[in-house]
Structure formats: structure tokens, C-alpha cells
Amino acid sequence: MKSLEELKKLREELQKEMLARNSKGKTKIVIGMGTCGIAAGAREVLQAVLQEIEKRKLDVVVSQTGCIGMCEKEPLLDVQLPGKDRITYGNVTKEDVQRIIVEHVINGNIVEDLVVARLEEGGE
Amino acid sequence: MEATIYRSHVLICTGTGCVSSGSGKIKERMVAELEERGLQKEVKIVDTGCHGFCEKGPIVIVYPEGVFYCQVDVEDVSEIVEEHLLKGRIVERLLYKEPLTEESIPSYNEIDFYKKQMRIALANCGRINPESIHEYIAVGGYEALGKALTEMTPEEVIEEVKKSGLRGRGGAGFPTGLKWELTRREKSDKKYLVCNADEGDPGAFMDRSLLEGDPHRIIEGMAIAAYAIGADEGYIYVRAEYPLAIHRLEVALEQAAELGLLGENILGSGFNFNLHIKKGAGAFVCGEETALMASIEGRRGMPRPKPPFPSVSGLWGKPTNINNVETFANVPYIINNGAEVYSAIGTEKSKGTKVFALTGKINNTGLVEVPMGITLREIIYDIGGGIRDGKELKAVQTGGPSGGCIPADLLDLPIDYESLTEVGAMMGSGGMVVMDESTCMVDVARFFLSFTQSESCGKCTPCREGTKRMLEILDRICAGEGREGDLELLEELGNHIKETSLCQLGGSAPNPVLSTLKYFRAEYEAHIKEKRCPANVCEGMKSAYVIDESVCIGCTACTRVCPVDAISGERKKPHYIDPDVCIACGACAAKCPVSAIAQG
Fold it and tell me: Within 10 A of B196 (CB to CB), how many other CB atoms are there?
């Protein structure tokens, strides 16, 4: 490295790898990974999400949650943009993942036909 | 470079504390479990340095949730993987429980032990992989060095550090910026920079944790200091008993050199800096700067009179600046955030934070970083979780073996360099031993003095002979053979040793004795006049055990454990302890199934 600028550039690249450890103010995708979710194919959905994120170099935190009782709608996938409502999508397939990521995560438009619930920001 | 994104990071502590409680095996098992479930591309395992909460180790933290698992066993690993990493369910039983409320706390930041801390020096410890320069850079590492080299003159760096109010964290508290300026001013073809990592206080491990947990931060702090004073070569003097710290430093030095952050023409600025590690053999006196330099030069580690100060004549006679590990750890923060931000923390004369090694009869022991000016009460009760087993606090010993004891009624003392010195203790490197009512203060003073006495290098008479004589008197008092006039003699000796010793080892060695004499004189007097140890600690003065005949069932359990055969009696009939033979070891009382035995 020959300059401060080079150092700063390297930092920007490396920061992405550290994202999982600093989730404040980042978009979150939460996947239901209870037994019901896994049985309905949540693992494939999760992997599809990770692939999309990697492919598009997105600044997104992915985590899982257990069963929330809506087992018949599994796999469930929540998207929460910073400061926005938490949207829950149901019966998500691998194919839906790309739509959700492009339309909602990147462009901020909720994919209405897949929504099964919404949690207002600040509500739990 | 292609960044690899993992959805979850599992941080496994590989500090010395957690390694000794088994974190290596946990990592092995974790790798195997992840592979078995095909999660190795989604979950990243990261080795980290010390979190400071070694008592609760091995510690495993799972991100992005930031869930803090403690005292993890190898057998728990598959549950963490199956439940948390696969299904997203927190493993409740492995969470930390607050000692007072019994409440389980999932998140790192919500635990009282961490909540009340302010981590500047330790900011990255436990949060990044210390063997990865990339992780350090990702959290902003080496940018302070870059800023100093490209945007600031050496004088501006010194001015910033002076304005920050940073003082030496090794204990004496000399203003860091001023020290740098003194070395800067010297005209010389060669100057040296030294990092004092000869951590010797029993129980203190902040330097080790910093070197193990965030070695690049120390290297960065040193490079900034070297630029400021005009040195092109530096030494880290670290004790050989810290193999992990040395290993991580070696890795870090290699990585920094590879990226051009050490060596020639750093970041295109024309500034050169090379850094070496010097392993010390672990003599306590080598923490004294002139002894330390003698040791680096290959001579026997003994202090010499000052002046000349190292800034004038240090290593090989060249101007040399020596700072402690923790001092260097604060430097990148000051350069990045500015002197105002740093000096807003702390008290009028003591700025910033201080790391303390909290230990003794307290619920949460460990390494804590707190703002200067915090009270002992806050450290002991809010962070430390109070005294163990609901006992009463008796005193706090600060500053390592040459520090002093602060009595419980000074609990609201705001901690800074001046206030600690004023009450007869000192900041020292930041050891903090909490003692409860079952501690004998005479015994404590004797313990600490026996340490400094055996570490005295022997060069000057007051320290060599004086500490020996003081220890003899204390031994006598603890054995129940104290005499009238002993206390006055201890005070006279102590004050003479402090005033006339060559270095600060002798200059502070009498502190534990003098401070306990000041605050717990009655306890000394009880030993001498009544031949009684009020805390029932000192051998030879413990009162004999007595069996309550109405309770004793004659099971003979006590007779079998008594090491001196003081107990007699027939089976199924009350037993009797011969008070002249009993050495009050307490083995019988511990064994008695009906609690019939107590001290008389």
C-alpha cells in the first residue's frame, strides 16, 4: 500500500465481510427456520437469499428465527428496511426470492401479492 | 479482492483465559458440526481475543444477533449449531445470568458487566480476529496512522496528544504528549521507541489481553508515536511467559510489513519504522524503564539513577521514549476522533478511560474499561455485580503489589491518578483486588510485600534490606509474636524505603503495609496485643474448634480428617477436640454432617 487513499479503499471492500457483526441501520432479512419452516423448504430459500446478496453485493443482514405459529404459510421471510415496517412474506419459494430482493430490498417496493403480515416499525 | 459474505459470524474467544478453559476444542467441534450440516459457507468462525470476562469462559458470540454464550462446553456445540445457527433459536441455558436478578441476558451489550463499561483501548478485543490485519483495517485500523503521516506534522501529533490529556497507563501517569515532546526535542541521528509490555503485577492482564486481542492497535499507536518523536526503530518488550501475545504480535508485525504499514516509506510519506519484539525473562523490576532498557541491551535488568532520563539517554545512549501498552492503545482513537472527544471523558486531571483487572471476592471478575472518575462503588456493584456470597466489602487493593488498600468507607471515591495517590493507593497498572470481611489485612499486606521483596533486584540497600526487615516483622505479627513498637518501626522503615530507594519498585513496595496501617490499625493491634486475628486467617492465632456435644452424633468423620489427631471420642458418643493440639484448619467442621463443630 502506498497511500492513505489505498488504505481507505481496502477498508471499504473489507467492511462488507464484517457486516454480520454490525447490523445497526442495515436492511434485515429474517427467515423462519423452525421445524415447520425447514420442512417447507426454508433452507433452500435461505441459500437463495445468500446467493442473491453475494451476486448483487448488497448491504444486508440475514438472520433466522424460530416458528412464529404461522406454520402453514412457511417458508416465511421478513424484510425490514431501516426505519420501515417489517414485512412478512409467506409461502416463499426460491423463485420468489429474486423478486423480493430486487423489488423490495433494492427498490423499496413491497411485493404485495406475497405479503402475509406487516409489523409497524418500532412494534415487536 | 473478492469479499465473501457469511450470514452469521461465530466468534470464539481464543484469549489465554478461554483457551485454558477449552475454547480450542470448541472450535474444532464447531468446524465439524458446521460441515456436517453444510453450513460452512454460510457461517464463519472467527477467533477473537479476550472479552475480559474470562471467569465465564469459554465465551462464544453469535452474530448478527450478538448473542453471548458463556461457559460453553464441547458438548454444547451441536446444540448451538442445530438450534441457533440452523433454526435461529437462542440456546437459553447457555446465556449469561445476572448474579443479582438471575435473569438471562441474551445480548452482549445488555449484560451489566459490559453495559457500564466504556471500551476505547479494548474496543476491538473480542470483536475482531487479532490474527487478521484485514479485520483490523475493516474497522478503521491504520487510518489514524495514515492521517498522522499525511495530514499532520510530528508537532501537530504531539500537540493533539497533549491536548487530549492522555497520561501514562503503566501507573505513574506522566503526560504522554509531554514525554513525546521531550524526546522530539533531543537532537540525535538515532532515536528509539519502546513499548513496555513487561506486565508483572499479579492478577493484572490488560497488556496481555490487548496484545492478544488487538495487536495491530498497539503497532499503530507505536508507529504514530515514532513519527511524532522522530524514531525509526522500536522495541516491544514483552515477557516470555506470554507466548500467545508474542505469537500474535509476530503475526501482526509480518502482516503490517507485508502491506507496507511498517518498514520503509510508509504510505508514501517517507517515514520509516521497524519494530522488533524483545522477550523478557519475567523479572518484575524490568517493568522499570531503565532496567527494561538494560535488559533490551542484553545486560542484567537493574535500574539506574535518573537523570539522565530516557528521553535524553536511553537505549544504547540514544534518546528513547517508553510508553505502556495501554497508553499506545489509546493513541489511534485520539488521532481519529480528536483531542476534544477524548478529553471530554474523565476528570479534570485524568482524561479518558482506564482498564482495570477486577478480581477477588466479587461476582463478576475480569477486565473492565471504565471512564476515569467513576467511583469504586460503581465498579464493584454495577459492573462487578457485588460481593460474593452476600458478604460485606472490607477493602479494595489497587495498583498491584505496590499499591495500597482502600477501606470500604471510601467507596464513593472517584477514581483518578490524584485521588488514588491521596488515599495512599495508586493507579498502578490497574489491578483491583476486592476483599471481603473474611480477609485479614495484615496477611494481605504481608502477601504483597513478600512479592515485592522477592522481586527486589538488590541493587540499592533500602529496597533490598528494608523490605526484608519489614517482611520479617510482618511474619512475626502474623505468627502471633508481634511486639510493642512493631507498628511504629514498620512505618519508619516504610517511609524511609519509599524516600530513599533507587527506583519505584522500592519507592512503592511499602504502600500495602502503610495503607493498611493507616486504615486498619486496630487489626494490627489485635494481632500484637490480643494475639488474635479478627478475620481468623493467620495461622497460629486461629482459635481452636469446639464440638457441640449436644449435637455430635459420634460418627467419627472428624477424627478421620484431623491432620494432627486432636480429636478423640468413642463411636456414637460425643467427641472432643483438644484445644492445645488443634491448629484450627477447619477440616473437621467442613466434614461434620450435623454442623456440630465451630470455632470457639
Answer: 28
Residue B95 is classified by DSSP as B
State pLDDT tens for residues B30-55.
999 999 988 888 899 999 999 889 88
Residues of B in contact with A31 (CB under 8 A): 88
CA end-to-end distance (rounded Å), chain A: 46
Reported confidence tier of residue B80, pLDDT bands at 50, 70, 90: very high
CA distance B537 to B409: 22
pLDDT 10s digits, B528-563: 999 889 888 887 777 788 999 999 999 999 999 999
- B9 contacts A20? CB cut-off 8 A: yes
Q: What are phi and psi of B556, to 5 degrees?
A: 70, 10
B5 and A14 within 8 Å at the Cβ level: the answer is no
Residue of B nearest to A55 (CA): B5
Residues of chain B with Cβ-Cβ distance to A53 below 8 Å are 5
Contact residues of A toward B, CB < 8 A: 1-4, 6-8, 10-11, 13-21, 23, 28, 30-35, 37-38, 46-47, 50, 53-54, 57, 61-66
pTM: 0.88
For an interface test with B, give the residue of A7, A46, A50 to mutate (most B CBs within 10 A). A7
What's the CATH fold of domain B543-599?
Alpha-Beta Plaits (3.30.70)
Q: Kindly list the domain boundaries of chain B, sorted by start residue.
A: 8-111, 133-343, 353-436, 441-529, 543-599
- Indicate if ipTM > 0.85: no
Pairing of strands B192-197, B404-407: unpaired
Domains of chain A, CATH where assigned: 23-119 (3.40.30.10)
Per cent of chain B over pLDDT 90 is 80
Q: Which of B5, B88, B143 sits opposite A8 (nearest CB)?
A: B143
Residue A62 has pLDDT above 70, yes or no: yes
Residue of B nearest to A49 (CA): B7
User: Positive or negative, the Cα torsion across B277, B306, B203, B70?
Assistant: negative
Average pLDDT, chain B: 93
Opening angle at CA B231, ends B225 and B237, nearest 5: 70
Nearest residue on chain A to B139, alpha-carbon basis: A15
